[in-house]
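Hi L., both proteins are below.
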Amino acid sequence: MSAITRDEVAHLARLSRLALDEGELDHFAAQLDQIVGAVARVAEVAAGDIPPSSHAVPLTNVFRPDEVRPCLTPEQALSGAPAVEDDRFRVPRILGEEA
């Protein structure tokens, strides 16, 4: 027995403002029924004693220690800029409101 009917697909299509013909209604009803069945099978497998996870293997971040290194002075960094204002790059305003 199909869990998703043609009428339900037609209703979803109307809500989504999609124009589907009769063939598409049958086609999508079958596809949605398969999707609902697959989700139901996954729900059957999930056990209460298994914690939910987002990855199959544990992830660990690899951080490097912060080290102070020599870098460019503000003058060197801004030396090639087409426009500078208050020791910063000057760029065109993209928002019309005041910050």
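That was the first. Here is the second:
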Amino acid sequence: MTDGLARAASALVLVAALAGCGASPPPSAHQAQAPEEAMTRVGDVLVRANVLPTTIIGEAVATQYGVERDPGTVMLLVGVRRDADGGETALPARVTATAADLLGKRQQLQMREVRSGEFIDYVGTARVIAPDTLRFVVTATPEGGSPMELRFNRDFFPR
């Protein structure tokens, strides 16, 4: 399997795990859609970020990530990886993030490290009142490395 196919398969497994774990989600104020990944690369280091309405993740995943499922809350999930010949390896990092809505109201996200086996993810939540667009700025500094910045927008719509 090529790296591209492996990444696509991994993304599909993540979406299925996030959407399918636990009991059925309650009605959401957001459209449930496959997460759109934002990514930046410096050398062999990748920073990937996804934002998901917390109502589309299952109870087990919400518990694992320490996130409360709520129609007005979205979860930012950031991974910092070294992309080497044999695949990706999780890297410890310092991750900070902000989210700002269309009116300019800015939220500092409290990012926390979540470990699961060999994987390390960084998770934070933001409040949103749909319809709105949140502008995210994520800064990840891998251990012993330089800061990497990722900027992206996500739209949220009432359901």
